[in-house]
Specification:
There is one protein chain. The protein has 15 helices and 5 strands. By secondary structure, it is an alpha+beta fold. The protein folds into 2 domains: 100 residues, no CATH class; 209 residues, MetI-like (MetI-like fold), CATH 1.10.3720. The strands form 2 sheets. Strands 1-2-3 form a 3-stranded antiparallel β-sheet, with no helix packed on it. A two-stranded antiparallel sheet has the order 4-5. Strand 4 and strand 5 form a beta hairpin.
Length: 391
Amino acid sequence: MSELTPPAAKALPHFVNTAPFDPRTIEALTPAQERIYLASQWQLMWWKFKRHKVAVWCGVFLGFLFFVAIFAEFLAPYKLDSRHIESIYHPPQGIHFFHEGSFRGPFVYGSDYKLNMDNLKREYTLNPQKVHPLRFFCTAEPYEMWGFIAGSTHLFCAPEGETVFLLGTDRLGRDMLSRIIFGARVSLTIGLVGVAISFTLGIIIGGLAGYYGGWVDMIVQRVIEVIQSIPSIPLWLALAAIMPVTWSPLVVYFAITVILGLLDWTGLARAVRSKLLALREEDYVLAAQLMGASTSRIIGRHLIPGFISHLIATATISIPTMILGETALSFLGLGLRPPVTSWGVLLTEAQNINVVALYPWLMLPVVPVILVILAYNFLGDGLRDAADPYK
């Protein structure tokens, strides 16, 4: 038996370094590789987002629009309700820099007015003898920014005693550029507030339905089906009739925002439910449950981050949907009402085709709506790709 017994195995030498691992000591990595290797998740997302040039420029454009909305009183040449009864339906005035071959700086030409008795159209003809140089950072109509900051300085304005209408005027002689700038404040914020409400409801309700399943999922799905089966136009007509005419414009604004948020959460809730149904069976979810993690922590810290790119894409699509919803409702007279001004309210002036044919600049509020929708879509593409930087 002793001859058959193998000799005792000798311990093989090993070369494992027991010192703490420091990735900075790896000499094989180039500086560029080391920079990526040591970067955090947020840094990787930012670097990938910057590679999407269109999304970056769309983000800059949207940031500029929000800046305009915040400082609307300073950037607008006139106040929201300023009327110029001698310049009703005045066409847009172009900016010029040279007059009779000499540089005069930015200025506009004045105009002469007459009424065409054949079609009752107000006709304005440029008068090259009337040169109105623009003033910058000038003192003009006083205002209160956001209702409590008094001021009278504007970015630009016309010479004293004159007027300038870069985008024309409406039927009451109000400057269209100023009204579009003020309208951005309502149209842009209504999308953010509405999406915040719909996202909160969609993530909570859809997360509970997907995580628990069973009777909770059944009740949530039946509620979603009932809400989605309600026809949109009769619903809006009923809501418009329910709102008392005595409500202030601010209350109507918040009511429209809440209603848009309460009706838009169903699609996101179903998306969250389907994702959680697939992810709740993963091993890391079971490990979290065994360690005593609460339901809210498992959903918020472990499950939802697994499909954050989908949520980002949904958010960037929902915001322009909210803006379009408010614009359509206000255009139909079911949403916001004057004196609240939004891009949809401004487009109500363009309901008469005869007015549009004679004064086409009344359709200009549709331009920022289109640009904002496109910018949000391109920004969403960039954020969706950046949310998963390892692809």
